[in-house]
Amino acid sequence: MPLILTEEQEMLKESARGFLDEKAPVAALRKLRDERSEEGFSRALWKEMAEMGWAGILVEEEHGGSGFGFVGAGVLAEEMGRTLTASPFLSTSILAATALNKFANDAAKSEYLPKIATADIVMALAVDEGRKHGPAVTAMKAEKSGNGFKLSGSKAFVADGHVADKLIVAARTAGSPGEEAGISLFLVDAKAKGVERERTIMVDSRNAARVNFENVAVTGEDVIGEIDNGHAALEGVLSAGRAGLAAELSGSAQQAFEMTTTYLKERTQFGKVIGSFQALQHRAAHLYCEIELVKSVTLKALQDLDNAFGMAGVTASLAKAKAGEVAKLASQEAVQMHGGIGMTDEYDIGLYMKRIRVAQEMFGDSAYHAERLARLRGY
Amino acid sequence: MSDLEAFRKETREWLDANCPKEMRDGAGGEENICWGGRNWKFKSEAQKVWLERMAAKGWTVPAWPKDYGGGGLSKEEVKILKDEMRKMKMRSPLESFGIWMLGPALLKYGTHEQKSMFLPPIARGEIRWCQGYSEPNAGSDLASLQTKCEDKGDHWLVNGQKIWTSYADESDWIFVLVRTDPKAAKHDGISFILIDMATKGVSTKPIKLISGKSPFCETFFDDAVVPKEHGAGVNAVVGTLNRGWDVAKYLLTHEREMIGAGGGGLLGGRGIGEMAAHYVGVDEKGRLNDPMLRTKVAQAEVDGWAFLLTMERLKDEAKAGQGMGAKSSMLKYYGTEFNKRRFELFMDASGSEGLEWEGERSEDGKLAKNWLRTKANSIEGGTSEVQLNIISKRILELPDA
Question: Which ipTM was obtained for this model?
């Protein structure tokens, strides 16, 4: 399969750019931040996105979605990365939709997928517990209780956790932290007894939460994937999330870079446009190459998710590793090359640095994924 | 069955019937290449037969027009041919600068007469070409070249020196950038001219590099008399007189893509991690015994893989008609820098054994020599710094200093 977008995907990209520039530019995020919005995103905008088929981009038509696949979802994530658009797209349209599509029973699919497509539900994935990503070190417990389970433990860095209606939670039904075996996935009502949520205001002004669970009751019907064997499902969902974040990082890096080269052509010092200085030209040219590499790995990971979902973990890690590292570089170079103005809150470039920091950390930073690839490649 | 499927079947059958079994060992490497030329000595009867059969079919240069010794195949058909050859591990029947460089230049800028005279012998492996671009004082600033080419009425008189001429001492003809108008602006007085190496006044001298033996030579022109026409209506100058820079630029783009991809050395061969594990061993969890090295290797593999995918993407974009243009500078820059990094890691991993320069154990310092050779990757065909300049100006459109 050629490593380029199809005509249909190109059209989606174009219409997404037009829509986001008009309805959800960086100023929209700034407004949410400055108004200290309770929800951290605009419901009205989210509804509009649903009308265009974005919320249900991974939901098949039989459930009311647009069924555009992962490349389509990545195209949207990339464009939202350009405008730093805040929405439950990652948590609900990518992570939850993938978990339901690929691993849930028919009843759960029929109940939730249509609601995702119409933006009538927000769902969040609760996986990490410590400072760093690590699905295998899950310690949260799910103890058998009658026909169901009781969940106890705590989760952190849950995107959209405080506004979610439903949580997809990784918990241990067997084994001990560090083991892949023994993990199971549960669909938990966010308002269930014993669930306590704390919104964590993050550096990027986007949604995240810590969630505590104390003897939260769930039934066998609420299991996603297989009991004790949920790690495979979790990795599948995470692959989709990692590729989606890589696409978002790619968009943010591209936009930060474009703002920087524009600035290099405008700003004058020593009687010359600073973009004429070779010291800056070479750094910009190097960064250009790195960003081109990010575009390639991201598209590859998204295509793999569409064509061979079960095998896509490797290229998803590759994409997350490369995109995280390069986006960080892009944001650092952007601030440095902008000079003093790049340090001001009024100028947008700092918002890119903040979001990139968060997105590269979520579901594994570059070191996590490079290490994972090394293990998979036998060294 | 579609036409392409039928073509694949016929091709597979023909290749299977005609490729000698000695040529199906998938062997690459300098020593196994068939370069052709007047002085070429075939390494085996099989190599000779394979070249003759493929040349007769036009498949040494499958994409070239049939009239000029090519196979006249479409892009899709060429891909199928290469696919089938790769599947059966067949060696390439012929490689040469004529195929990679001069051929594409003549196809784009040459006259019918020039194509008819020069292309078929390239396709048949009868004439071997080399490239005379760089000069001792014209490296990164190639357009400042000074090799003089004077109009003497019925002939050209050439005086000057070229350097880094690969395989000049084994080649039959040379395509050279010369200055035909010393008064014109730097880029405007240059012409692209074809010269028989047997011409009186043309001589060569091999250059030894820090890596040992090399294909590079110095090439000297001392009052070399070059006819205006090499045959009836066959101009010695390719393209318009004094517009040789256009041809040179076109070819440099080609060369950069080649060095970026090939010099990247990423197609085939063992991975860095695999090599490192072989050299330093792994611990009980299967991780490299050297954690700092492991980190560097893992990061390099991420970049190497991402680079491979980028070559793939740019090729797919080019096929879809988006063209590569100045992006070849990106491939050249990133691929060669990556290859240097790769060999630094090989050397780190191999420790003192990798430093042996002579003897059987090290195959006469094979790794060390290859490591040193990679240092030229980011110099030849335009340095990394020149590539970054090109990206800055042509792609990012940053202003001149």
Answer: 0.95
